[in-house]
Write a structure and sequence with these properties.
mainly alpha
């Protein structure tokens, strides 16, 4: 397995790996502290981004949809 912790974490967290590749990655994560740390950091980053996300008020969403529908 090519060792690129950042890429491996992105592939793993994307949820788009096939079954065989996912099993290989999971086995690798059990043995590689560097890759596991990258996955953990990416998860924390995603959680932080989600926590800061603001939901668009319904009235603004309706106005945007109305403008988009005009096109």
């Amino acid at each position: 397995m090519r060792h690129d912790p950042e890429r491996l974490a992105a592939e793993f967290l994307s949820g788009e790996l096939g079954r065989a590749r996912r099993l290989l990655v999971e086995r690798h994560l059990l043995d590689c502290e560097e890759c596991w740390a990258e996955v953990a950091a990416a998860r924390r980053g995603r959680q932080a981004a989600e926590a800061l996300r603001e939901v668009t008020p319904p009235s603004l969403r309706d106005r945007i949809r109305a403008v988009v529908d005009l096109d």
